[in-house]
Amino acid sequence: MCFSTVASFGAGALLTGATILAARKSQKPAQWALVAIPGIFAIQQFTEGFVWLSLTNESYAGWSQSATFWFLFFAQVFWPAWIPLAMVLVEKDRWRRQILFSLLGLGLVLSSYSIYSLLAYPIHARVWENHIQYWIDTPPYWTTFVLVVYGLVTVVPTFFSSVPRMWWLGITIAGSYFISLALFPHHIVSVWCYFAAIISVLVIFVLSGMSNKTKVRPEQDSL
Known about the structure:
This protein is mainly alpha-helical. The protein has helices at 5-25, 32-56, 64-90, 94-120, 143-154, 156-160, 166-183, 188-199, 202-221; strands at residues 123-128, 131-136. The protein is globular.
């Protein structure tokens, strides 16, 4: 299978290593929310590994609800707030920060709704067509609204950032969403999160660009 218990745990291990490398590239406390992104994705992928175990091995069936809850917590509650927050903390341009603060506020609204949904409605996960399908029994008329706002707060902030190379993170995550939607429409939560997790190693690339900019600036100022 393309995505499996091994794939999830393997991605978690890879992202743990990427987080260590990202931490070594970090130079300022304001960058730590950005540094943490692959590390938190690592936890999320380890969590999905346990979802796989609970759905494919009867010995772990008792873990199904808790593992599903925590995977969906990261996917639907955590990221809508964390991504814009990470962008705000590293942004220095005033008008861009204002836009990013607005997106952060919208993300917090979505996160609040999502945690309410997780606690108020039944959650489900099943293996279907070799992938995990997740869903929550929320009113269907909220689905389009949630998808639009989710995209706004998790992808758009990377394009408003003035940080060098940040747009690479945004364009690859956005591209992976459309690929996931086209090829795995019934497994979008699991598959897109997997792709986004792997793509998050680009945080190292972004931090390297920030480090290079800091090193070059004194030479430019002396001219």
